[in-house]
Amino acid sequence: MSQVDKYTRTAVILHWLIAFLVGLNILLALTVDYFPDALVRPIIDFHKSVGITVLGLVFLRILWRLTHQPPPLPATYKPWEAWLANSAHYGLYALIIAMPLTGWISDSGWKGAPTHPMMLFWIIPWFRFGFITSMDAANQKYIHDLFGNFHTLLSYALYGVIGLHTLGALKHQFIDRQPAIQRMWK
């Protein structure tokens, strides 16, 4: 495989870093209820920190992709496979942006926000959306609940698209015997 067929080193690093952090946040979200009560708030705070970090990284990834042409899909892909691969990529970008934003909006309406400042990784002060924090308590609760529900619903969509993306890569690698994984591995 020639170098042209692979993603750039920066794209590869951003891909796997985002994938790791998204996976970590999924793990945290799915297991938080199994931790002792004293650890729940620190785990949620860590989940928020990872989500904001992913949001920043995905914007970097998009900027990189806009300025660095990705390698073309292999010519052996059937039209429906190319369409599905491109759709999954766009879906992943949309969901990986929407997830932290809906979580952040929900957190901004959280009733505990005034007494529990948001700190990225317990060090960096981070802001909540002032137009939400300045609302009356009933509207804050409404925003918190509404966007919390969006956040949860989007998580299920994210699980599905990640599953399709992963299964597609594995199919091309092991069934079609095409070097799909090597394109995103340096």
Would you write up a description of this structure?
There is one protein chain. By secondary structure, the chain is an all-alpha fold. The protein has one domain (3-184). It is built from five helices and two strands, in the order αααββαα. It has helices at residues 9-31, 37-67, 79-108, 130-133, 137-175, and strands at residues 119-120, 124-125. Strands 1-2 form a two-stranded antiparallel ribbon. A hairpin with a 3-residue loop joins β1 and β2. α3 (79-108) runs antiparallel to α5 (137-175). The two termini are 12 Å apart. The mean pLDDT is 94.
Which characteristics define this entry?
186 residues, mainly alpha, 2% strand, elongated
Taking pLDDT < 50 over at least 5 consecutive residues as the criterion, the unreliable ranges are: none
How many structural domains can be distinguished in the coordinates? Answer: 1
- How many β-strand stretches? 2
Q: Count of DSSP helices?
A: 5
Strand content: under 5%
Trace the largest sheet across and list its strands. 1-2
Give the termini distance in whole angstroms.
12 Å
Tell me the helix content. 55-70%
Which H/E pattern describes the elements? HHHEEHH
Describe the largest sheet: 2 strands, antiparallel
Shape: elongated
Cα Rg: 19 Å
Overall pLDDT, averaged?
A: 94
Summing up helix and strand content along with how strands pair, one would put the structural category as: mainly alpha
